[in-house]
Amino acid sequence: MEAFFSTKLRPTETCIICSDPFSADHLPVALPCHHIFGHACITKWLRNGSGNNTSCPFCRHEIYEPIAGAAFTDASIWTALCAQSPERIHDFMSTLWRRVAKLFAAQPNGDFSTSDLLEHALIPALSRTARSNGHRGPFDDAHSLVLSTWDSLGRPDSAHGLAIPLVRLVRLMTQTSAILPKWLTTVPRTSTLFWRANASLGTAASSANISWTSLVEASQLENPRFFPFLHLYTVLLSQNIVHSRPTHAGPTEREVEQRCCRKFGSEWGEWPEEAFRQRVVAVYMELRRYQMQEKRLSLRGHDEEKGVVTGLWAMAMWRREGSPAATGVAVRRKTSAGWGSGGE
């Protein structure tokens, strides 16, 4: 018995996790399995540990049951990312915009491979956003999964799993960045606008490519799914007018088509159908009239613009159908929606 007391009942003086001695600032705590750790160390393990972090790190006795449905999958992490606060989304998007600017500085022609976007923009932005949070969250999970998946596949020049919608987001930014003034990329509502537009195009199981098909469907105003993408596209049309060289006669229909379907959108698949291009021309000309002749503010991504966007595209469809009241109805809709009243 004396041998048992002397060999088996030794006091615990150090933490098993960090090997530092216990003290007033490093208090010991015991788990249900009776293993003792420093309070800060075991708390960090349970909150931020990877893998089986719901159990004792020494004997793997389960401490608590994981939350049902909290699977570490592409779909679950994408859902969690989309549920983040506008502030967190803006934090991530702000880092992405800076990374995109660095890509253009190194390669001004904008011909970026998927590997370029992953290595130099997306993965660093996820890492930076995860570190800024202070505790494990969806951006940390996204960084771990995207990086580990890419590494395990040998870093191919293609997106897989969770990287699919995130790479598509970066491509949307690179393909439209020349249209937006730099200040507009720094405001939270622009971050939300881009995030929602990209999210409307599909989840981690969809394509990394952007297609005119989604925009054509959205412009018919029958399915609200792709409306965030339509809102973003309409803002791009409006900003294109602001930063185009003004002419007395204005652009021809062909020039509008080139500006709005080639200057941005050239990577979105085949040239869109004629009916859609006619709607684009009608929306562009109406925006130009209001911004150039009526001296109204351009569209800048405010939520209050949704009624304006709906009215513009409805007007475009009515004009194509030859409705004589099209212009007047559209104007009344825009006025009631507060066209140009959003300040910045």
UniProtKB/TrEMBL annotation:
Taxonomic superkingdom: Eukaryota
InterPro entries reported in the protein's UniProt record: RFWD3, Znf_RING, Znf_RING/FYVE/PHD
A single cellular component GO annotation: nucleus
An example Gene Ontology biological process: interstrand cross-link repair
GO molecular function terms listed in the Swiss-Prot or TrEMBL record: ubiquitin-protein transferase activity; zinc ion binding
Pfam families: zf-RING_2
Sorted UniProt keywords: Metal-binding, Zinc, Zinc-finger
Domain RING-type positions: 15-60
Protein name, entry field: RING-type domain-containing protein
